[in-house]
TrEMBL record:
GO terms for molecular function: DNA binding; transposase activity. GO terms for biological process: DNA transposition. Residues 121-291 form the Transposase IS4-like domain. The lineage of its organism: Archaea, Methanobacteriati, Methanobacteriota, Stenosarchaea group, Methanomicrobia. Pfam families: DDE_Tnp_1. This is Transposase IS4 family protein.
Amino acid sequence: MCLCNKHTGNISSNKYLNFIDTALAVSGNSRLEIYSCKYSKRTYTQHQLLALVLLKEYLNEDYRDIVELVELMDKVQTKLGLKQIPHFTTLHKFVTRIRTILLNRLLHQTIKLFYSHGERIEVTAVDSTGFTSGHCSYYYSLRTDKKRHSFLKTSIAVDTSNLVIIGVKVSGRPVHDTKHAVTLLKQCHRIRKSEFYVMDKAYDSEDIHKLVRDELGSIAIIPVKDRKRKRIKGRYRRLMIEDFDVALHRKRSMSETSNSVLKRKYGEEIRARIYRNQVKEIILKVVVYNLDRFVKVKIIVYLRISTEPNYYFIY
C-alpha cells in the first residue's frame, strides 16, 4: 500500500463498499479467467462470483442468506455490476469448480497490498489451530456423548508488525506441528522473506532449525523443551539455550491473536462437507482476513488525509 500525489478518487468511508472494491481489484490480478469456459452463458463473470463468495465469508453467512442480503444491497449490486442476482447454487458450484491454486494466488495478491517490492518481514510468527466441521452444539454433543474428535488442522504464519497472514497449511486430520512447519516455512519464504521465525515449544526440532538457518537464511527462535536428560541433542538447539531472545519470542502471541480473530469473526465451523471444499473455505477465510485488515488500514489513512485532496491510493 502506498500514497501518491494525486487526488483521493472515490474512496468511501463505508467498509463494505471498500471491501468489494478491494476484492474485485485483487481478483483481477490473480489471473482468474473472466469466464470459466468459452461455452459459458456469460451471465456473471468469475470475478463477480468470487467477490460474492468473499462477501459471504466476510459476513459469515451461508449461500442462501448472502444471496438474499445482496438483493437488498443496491450499492453492492452497482459496485459488482450485477444485472441480476445469482442463485445460491451458482455460488456453491463456482467454489466447487475453482481450483485451490487460484485461491493461493489470490492470497498472494492480498499479501502484496501491504508490502513494496523486495521488502522483507522482520518477524514471522507460526502457530496452529483447528476448525470443526460439525454444526451441533457442544451441549448436544455432551448430552448424547457424541463429541467430535476430528478437526481440520490449520497452521498459519503471521507478520507480527502488520498482523498479515503470510501462509497457511491445512490437513484433514491432526498431525504434529513440525510436519506442517516444513511446508509452511518454505511457502512463506517464497512469498516474502523474513529475518526471524518465532514458534512455541511444539516446533522444537533440530530439523526445523536446519531448514530455517541453512536453506532459508533466517533464524528460528524456538524455546527448548524441558527434558529430564541433561544433554540436549542438536547444534542449533544447544545454541538456542545461549542465544534465546525473549523479547523477540514474545511477538509469537500475534499469531494467536490472528487465530482468535480468524475464528471469532469469520466462524470456526466449516460448512463444506467435501474435504477439498473445506480447504478452500479455510483459505477463503484467510483471504478475507487480509482484505479486512487492508480495508481497515485504508479507511484510517483516508480519514486522516481527507482534508488534503492531493493524495490517492494505489493497490
